[in-house]
Write a structure and sequence with these properties.
The structure is a single chain. About 65% of the residues lie in helices and about 0% in strands. The protein has about 120 residues and is mostly helical. The protein is elongated, with a radius of gyration of 23 Å. The structure holds zinc ion. Zinc ion (ZN) binds next to loops.
Length: about 120
């Protein structure tokens, strides 16, 4: 009788724990961090899918479809991240107006630091 109760409590904890964790993760404000977490999460799913394919839980067709879906999300995340980078910093030097490369930390013409 006690064992039944303990098992019930453990089951509830097992089911509810991920919900709490997810809620906590959802509270992070930085989009960079949540994007990274999401990408990691999707890579985990891809590994699971590969495992399911190898163990015969998924057939090749289902596997390909699911992998394509997850890769589409990964691409979207990567694009969002690179868009964020592209929007950061000016394309021209604020001091002398020379054109800058995205990768430049200093202006190639006047040497001013690029922010
Ligand atoms: Zn300059």
């Amino acid at each position: 009788m006690y064992i039944g109760l303990i098992i019930t409590v453990l089951m509830c904890g097992y089911v509810l724990y991920p919900l709490f964790v997810r809620k906590y993760k959802g509270g992070l404000s930085s989009p960079d961090i949540s994007n990274k977490n999401e990408a990691q999460f999707i890579r985990g799913i891809l590994q699971d899918l590969e495992f399911d394919l190898e163990t015969g839980k998924l057939d090749e067709e289902e596997y390909q479809k699911l992998v394509t879906d997850q890769n589409a999300v990964l691409d979207k995340l990567a694009k969002e991240q690179s868009d964020g980078k592209a929007n950061r910093g000016p394309a021209k030097c604020a001091k002398c107006g020379a054109n800058l490369q995205r990768s430049d930390n200093f202006c190639p013409k006047c040497g001013a630091a690029v922010f």
